[in-house]
């Protein structure tokens, strides 16, 4: 009965917070359909692995971790496909680079390395505490603090570069 009760609590929690998890998945893949696939896969993994949940108090962090890992798995698979496509596109490249005049935070975030971007998103867009982020990413708190500081520094430098251009 305990397992069924946890499954029900997970389902209720995910339904209540579906927009948060969708935004998180979307921040990785930048595609609405792929983000929905990630959420669906995450729900499946959560229900299938309910035994790994320590208790109902941990649902939030536990499910965030599942969504992050599922998003990363998706990106790894996609990178293998994109690497082959990039080789074809390079052969077709005209050598003309597009320059975009408009700059925004979204573009700066997209340019951050993945391990820094996820921390900024979880901290400032999902409003999670440093301790929760550390648990979600299976890192220690000092590593998360260091990466957060470095990511904010990279964002400032990038934004300054655009302002000077």
Automatic annotation (TrEMBL):
Keywords of this entry: Sigma factor, Transcription, Transcription regulation
Annotated Pfam families: Sigma70_r2 (PF04542), Sigma70_r4_2 (PF08281)
CDD domains: Sigma70_r4 (cd06171)
Signal sequence bounds: none
Xref: InterPro entries: RNA_pol_sigma-70-like (IPR039425), RNA_pol_sigma-70_dom (IPR014284), RNA_pol_sigma70_r2 (IPR007627), RNA_pol_sigma70_r4_t2 (IPR013249), RNA_pol_sigma_r2 (IPR013325), RNA_pol_sigma_r3/r4-like (IPR013324), WH-like_DNA-bd_sf (IPR036388)
Matching SUPFAM superfamilies: Sigma2 domain of RNA polymerase sigma factors, Sigma3 and sigma4 domains of RNA polymerase sigma factors
Domain RNA polymerase sigma-70 region per the UniProt entry, residue ranges: 16-80
Domain RNA polymerase sigma factor 70 region 4 type positions: 104-155
Family assignment from sequence similarity: Belongs to the sigma-70 factor family. ECF subfamily.
UniProt name for this protein: Sigma-70 family RNA polymerase sigma factor
Species whose genome carries this gene: Clostridium rhizosphaerae
Lineage: Bacteria, Bacillati, Bacillota, Clostridia, Eubacteriales
């Amino acid at each position: 009965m305990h397992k069924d009760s946890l499954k029900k609590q997970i389902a209720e929690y995910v339904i209540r917070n579906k927009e948060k998890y969708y935004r998180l998945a979307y921040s990785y893949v930048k595609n609405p359909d792929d983000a929905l696939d990630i959420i669906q896969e995450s729900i499946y993994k959560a229900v299938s692995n309910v035994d790994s949940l320590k208790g109902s108090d941990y649902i939030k962090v536990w499910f965030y971790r599942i969504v992050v890992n599922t998003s990363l798995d998706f990106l790894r698979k996609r990178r293998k496909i994109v690497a082959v496509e990039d080789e074809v596109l390079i052969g077709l490249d005209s050598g003309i680079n597009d320059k975009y005049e408009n700059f925004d935070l979204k573009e700066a975030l997209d340019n951050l390395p993945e391990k820094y971007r996820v921390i900024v998103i979880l901290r400032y867009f999902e409003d999670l505490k440093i301790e929760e982020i550390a648990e979600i990413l299976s890192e220690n708190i000092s590593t998360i603090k260091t990466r957060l500081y470095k990511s904010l520094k990279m964002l400032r430098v990038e934004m300054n570069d655009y302002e000077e251009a």
